[in-house]
Amino acid sequence: MNHLLIKPNIHDAEHKISITSNKYDSIEFFFPYEALPVINYHDYALWAILPLAMKHGDHIEIDEPISRRAYDSVLKVARIWNFWVPHFYKKIKITAHHIVESMAESNQKSLMCFSGGIDSTYSTFKLYQQQVDGVDSLTVHGMDYKVNDNSKFEQLLDKTQILRSSIFGQSRFVKTNIYTVYNQQKCNPKGTHVTHIFSLFASLSLFEGYQHYLIASDERLDQQFVSHPYGSNSASNKLMHNTTGSLITVDDDVTRFEKTAYLVKHNFNLSSLSACGDAKARPHNCGICIKCLWTKAMLLSISGEIPDIFLDTTLEESWFERIDLRDLTNQMYAFDILSYLEIENKTEILPGYQGLRVKLDQIMLNREQDKLKNYSKLSLLKALIKS
Q1: Tens digit of each residue's pLDDT (9 = 90 or more) over 135-179
Q2: Which residues pair with 60 in a beta bridge?
Q3: Total tally of structural domains belonging to the chain
Q4: What CATH number does residue 210 fall under?
Q5: How far is CA 74 from CA 13, 77, 78, 88, 321, in A?
Q6: Residue 343 lies in domain
Q7: Are 134 and 62 within one domain?
Q8: C-alpha triplet 301, 302, 305: angle, nearest 5°
Q9: How confident is the model at residue 382 (pLDDT cuts 50, 70, 90)?
Q10: φ, ψ dihedrals at 326, nearest 5°
């Protein structure tokens, strides 16, 4: 097992916290809009380094103080991912020289991830409707926006400022190169995305003192079974803790389509939405990328029109031909849209409805048949081994 010595560093003059090691590039967190947070425990460092350690099977060593809650939690989550994806994520060990017993907060204070997309916007709007107090927001620069793209990130802040200021007690921000370091080491298995939850919880854990750390679910719980393994999921998220609080996945009882429908039906001002998959266009919505196509199709199906939040507001008859329906997330979106239109008897609203229905039905059947074929092969292999 490879030895990985990590060291958290506080740089007051540079408004920066870094994690250096004997193996990987430095992971850095900058605080351009507020003073450095008070750090008593370096739990964030364990969560930040974990995908790198799992990818390479490292033995982590850390001298700085960490909480018992984080230590136990990191080891448990690492074992889960090793069990789920053993060909990619290896066993790890941790030698921590200063583990401190800590008690979880009971102050009901929450820090919520906010990106301006449909999921986090829906969850934010629900907080407003339910008149929930004591919630701050955290927006991470370095994920949807490249770490050196300050202009576009500032545009996102301007776009979402009214929404954030009307609902959250404090809007917090952190800028980090953590995604760049993960990508250098190819920390995501092919065909899925795992590391975002670790970068987010590491960023959240920089801010101690909250009882709840909230993240909006990407998918309804039943859909998570289909897309597994996927980093941010209700099963492993709930096992992630730091010195004072725990990660909570909110609104995993509704799909992306249902969230969109809820916002429309409650007359939410959609102008703050940034739901684009094109990095060059964000925080605006290009209207032609795959994410924008799905969002336009959802909004058209629900309201009968495409709002002017997109640079391109058209939806052609063949729009779905650009989308790879072998992708499970795309299958989910198509299934939800078509089901809604059929239940509401509004299939004529969506251009290309019939073509999308035929294509989706065939793709879903192929997916199930492929699973059955693999199951038969596995059963045969087991029988041969026993004999």
Answers
A1: 999 999 999 999 999 999 999 999 999 999 999 999 999 999 999
A2: 4, 94
A3: 3
A4: 3.40.50
A5: 31, 5, 6, 17, 42
A6: 275-370
A7: no
A8: 70
A9: low
A10: -70, -25
